[in-house]
Amino acid sequence: MTPKQKGNVDIVAVARAAKVSPSTVSRTFNHPDLVSPATRKKINRAVQKLGYVRNRAAQMMHGKRSGTIGLVVPTINHAIFAEVIQAFSDAIDQAGFTLLLASHGYDLDREYAMVRKLMEHRVDGVALIGLEHSDATARLIAQQETPAMAIWNYAEESELPCVGADNRQAGRMAAEHLLQLGHRDIGLIFPDTRGNDRARHRLTAAVEALETHGISVPDERKSEAPYSVSQAKQAALELLSGPSRPTALLCGNDVIAQGALYGAQKCGLKVPQDLSIMGIGDFKGSADIEPSLTTVRIPAETIGTLAGERFTSYITSEAPEMFKLCCELEPILRGTTGRI
Amino acid sequence: MTPKQKGNVDIVAVARAAKVSPSTVSRTFNHPDLVSPATRKKINRAVQKLGYVRNRAAQMMHGKRSGTIGLVVPTINHAIFAEVIQAFSDAIDQAGFTLLLASHGYDLDREYAMVRKLMEHRVDGVALIGLEHSDATARLIAQQETPAMAIWNYAEESELPCVGADNRQAGRMAAEHLLQLGHRDIGLIFPDTRGNDRARHRLTAAVEALETHGISVPDERKSEAPYSVSQAKQAALELLSGPSRPTALLCGNDVIAQGALYGAQKCGLKVPQDLSIMGIGDFKGSADIEPSLTTVRIPAETIGTLAGERFTSYITSEAPEMFKLCCELEPILRGTTGRI
DNA sequence: AATAGTATTGCAAACGTTTTCATAAATTCT
DNA sequence: AGAATTTATGAAAACGTTTGCAATACTATT
User: Fold this and answer.
1) Distance (Å) from CA B101 to C1' D16?
2) CATH number for the domain harbouring residue A286
3) Under a CB-based contact definition with an 8 Å cutoff, are residues A252 and A80 in contact?
4) CA of B27 vs C1' of D8, distance in Å?
5) What does the pLDDT look like over B303-326, one tens digit per residue?
């Protein structure tokens, strides 16, 4: 059917088939207005017949962009990032870019390795999650002069362009909602905060907010759990099985909150009558849990889309200008929290 | 600190700095044994000083592999694929490859476009989800002679190498479990099966299994919902609010089952006393829901890992040999199903 | 009908590597 | 000590594109 000449169909094969020079073929793709309609038709027929597919790598060698953007995330596995990845991917796709994805499992050294790997592929830009990165990573980015941005966090003082939310505010909002409902004895379930500025900011801000109201959280009310429903469930179980139990649980994110909810249900506690549970994030599905999860909404999809749009135009722009976007947070009051 | 010469640090800049020829620098990377330790040291120092990062695109132009593998999924958003993507990504990373990810939103034409896009980047291989693809996609793959594989489905007769599970068996297992518990009036919630062979196989096999036992499922017991907790919840609500309601719900996957469970809880039905709910997939978290979800386990992580490992060795091998791996399914009996 | 434009095309150099082949230096052998 | 290897390096061609410049073929002008 399609007689592929011994393998390599390149621009000169097309040129030969169309009886024109390679330059003309190249121009047909890149500056169609410079080539006559007739030749263009001839060339397109040849392209069709030979099944030619352009070679971006070869284009790239002429200072052209590679057409790829790298995204390095802690993990793809959880609901947390899946949504941003999808939105970011769609947005850059829209602009003609392709996504190179890598994950590092919350290990900043592996993050460096991943960024480096992406740079070997000459990505046109690299997006990272959060603002905390190793020095090596920062140096690498600066040295290679690769456009870079941070997703998920917003910070006034950020060196990098960023699109995200203020995680401190998220923590504060969550704490204040519980305080407002009259809770004074609050348990905290957060992940390890090393190398995870998102979680750290939320936690410290929440604790500060509580302290402002004269409440200090003793250690036995603090529990650490990774972003895993089952491990969070376990952590909640422990927190709730003590001699006295808190009246509310503030969780580092919705995944943990979901685990906590199941833990509470397992203990036979009625939510929100016996225990209030507060998440952060408002992941897909959090609204549908029974009872539906009260949380602080971080608009993941918006962040991903905005990040993708801004970053691509930043990359393609002649005179790129710094951008820092802070997405609004919103307390979403649903079924897992109640007045004490 | 690092004095970067007007931008481009290439192999010849390194060569100049180390006072050797470009060839030697190249060799230091690709055949270190061919260059004397002394020169190697000189060169490495120069690399360090200049912050040189290799250019895979340029390497690729010499028949070298690009070091990238494309993965095209229907969606990144749901728990469904996040796990496979993560496992696949980790596995190919292990082998030195980088992931180019694209999603098509269950649209086979967009899938074609994505595959084409990946081929412009000269991926060393492209992995697709499922075995149902457009003719154009198949032609493209054959024509470009790009190694390709299918993930998630297993089929004896597949043209492509594949690693996955038998979705028909999954559907059958789910149906048989419900039958065994004595259920005769079973509701079905499945997604649109066009362009989604996974769902279609599960559904037809489930229906067949029921028919073998003399049970036919009337239309009002069938509902369609996409892979979304909230929409599945809605669908379940409708199915359960009719004049008579089924004693069990068989769901196309765990996401739908989760939605169905919330729907049932919202109706005030006790699961599994009043209603049994069966999922397919055993996604992360399904074990932790209260009550925990009875389902058919499809080992997503195993599939992703195996796929990544086999595909990379398939790609790098001199004499690649076809592989078709069928991962074992296992009914996981948990809390959402009970004897009638 | 000759001239000046203008539209279209081709030639050749360039991009950053790898690799074959050739050469020079160092080592081993007799 | 000279020949024969072996080891280490360099020169140059090649990979598949793009693009500046030059050449050609039209068209419109006088």
Assistant:
1) 25
2) 3.40.50.2300
3) no
4) 11
5) 999 999 999 999 999 899 999 999
